[in-house]
Amino acid sequence: MARATDVFYFVALLNLAILKVSGVYVCPSTTTILYDMEPCMPSVEGAYPDPPNEDCCFVVRTTEPSCLCSAFSGYKNSPSINERAALTLPRLCGKVVPFNFTCNGDPVPSGVELPRTRKLKLL
Known about the structure:
By secondary structure, this protein is mainly α. The chain has a single domain, classed as Hydrophobic Seed Protein, CATH 1.10.110. It is 41% helix and 3% strand. The protein has five helices and two strands; from the N terminus they run H-H-H-H-H-E-E. It has helices at 4-18, 30-37, 54-62, 65-72, 83-92; strands at 102-103, 106-107. The chain has a two-stranded antiparallel ribbon. A hairpin with a 2-residue loop joins strand 1 and strand 2. Helix 1 packs across helix 4 (65-72) and helix 1 crosses helix 5. Keywords: Membrane, Transmembrane, Transmembrane helix.
């Protein structure tokens, strides 16, 4: 099971990838956001993470990006989180990544198509 700090780091990276400017929105609690993001952990951990499942993608597509950004902006580096996987998760789930956006001063990737990593089977 993922450590709570790893979930914080993952969400911070995720919201770097999906931030957009929106109207005023009342965010759910941090605990609620972390609980909701739990299905995404296998998709962002390790060198060759699994593709996101439907539960993960539902959360990615329906969570207000500005809430993620403000709640988790201080958590960016975790040794168990694959940053590339976290940043591409919105694209893999069909969420459009805005061009030229920042989250608390950090640039957001523009949605450039990145090659997917694959697990290698050793014979």
